[in-house]
Amino acid sequence: MALICAALVCGTFFAAQHWKSQGWLLGLLAGAALTFWAIFRISPPPRIENWQSGAWGERDTARALKPLEREGWIVLHDLSARVGNIDHVVVGPTGVYLLDSKRLGGSVTVDDTGMTVRSIDDPDLAYHHTGTGHVLSLARQTHDQILDTSRINTWVTPVMVLWSPFPQRVVEQRCAYVHGDDLVGWLRARPQTIASARVQQVAEAARRAWTSGDRRPRPSLAPEPLVAGLKDGTRVAGRGVVSGARAWFQPRSARR
Q: Which carries the bigger pLDDT value, residue 210 or residue 256?
């Protein structure tokens, strides 16, 4: 591309020497070539542009979570997973959450088939976003890693944090979809599943889960309880905390 632009500029320069009456037109052409080259240079390739957009989403999520950290919640950032990375793991009295931040170029809707991104300029243009499966997989892996390294059996809620137009604001399925502006309020409003005194311990278990060099499964041990100090009415099965659809990561013995 640079060679083509350079050839156009040189060609218009030499042409202007022979056809001086057309110098203004040739100069305009040379200027257009230089402008096109400059735009091409500063425009990142699609993979870099997508990474940059994702990085902005992670930054916005980290900033939104600051009030929770001041309240004693613990937020782990940018953990290395087996494939890719985990944007954030949040641990607080209402549970453990794996957050994946998205800043998508369109308006987002969620239904039973998943997440659809629709062009704002042309609503007829849309695509089905396939990132939900990866977030679910990371949440399951995080649960398994925590259990293997610490005997703590806690549900890990997968959350897609959306920094794009999302009229539904919050949709709770196997993966929760939450607009970034509503994230903190949604996390606070969920029922308590971890005693406040155990938040630090669970967070350390989550940190070790993805930084430990030895990730081989350990012998089956009874999971440690997380419910000491919880208010009456918390639903408990065996030694793990469950509620409603959260039986996905419940021990088999507790589901009988």
A: 210
Residue 149 confidence (pLDDT)? 85
Question: pTM of this prediction?
Answer: 0.68
- Nearest residue to 194 (alpha-carbon basis) of 160, 248, 243: 243
* Beta strands at 176-179 and 240-241: parallel, antiparallel or unpaired: unpaired
The one-letter amino acid code at 114 reads: G
| Domain locations along the chain | 2-14+23-42, 49-255
162 phi and psi, to 5 degrees? -105, 125
- Strand-pairing partners, residue 236, are 241
Nearest to 131 by CA among 97, 167, 102: 102
Q: Which residues pair with 38 in a beta bridge?
A: none
Nearest by Cα to 110 from 174, 156, 49, 65:
174
How open is the CA angle 181-185-187, to the nearest 5 degrees? 110
Helix (H, G, I), strand (E, B) or coil at 104: coil
